[in-house]
Amino acid sequence: MANVYDYAHDLEKGLRESDEYQGLKQAYHAVMNDESARRMFDDFRETQLDLQQKQMQGQQITEEEVEKAQKMVELVQQHPAISKLMEQEQRVNTLINDISQIITKPLEELYRE
């Protein structure tokens, strides 16, 4: 019987070689190599992380912070390189969610019995 960790490493290799990941990698490098896009993307990510951290700590998020985040989302979605990056991130997330459903199927079946 094969070691399940060997399968996991094969899966990692497959993910790295997938069209979805390769597209994400290209889109990421396009943003990182464009100074204005990189700055805008970094600001966007920092704002997202700050809001997530506040939520996890149970802190109240102000209306002003929500408005700022919404404006930032609108702004980054208008930038072609960042928009492409976000689209590619979604494709990879979909792939990972699909894989997660596949690998948790034995547990779902067991608990449905």
UniProtKB/TrEMBL annotation:
Gene3D superfamilies: YheA/YmcA-like. Belongs to the UPF0342 family. This is UPF0342 protein EDD68_10657.
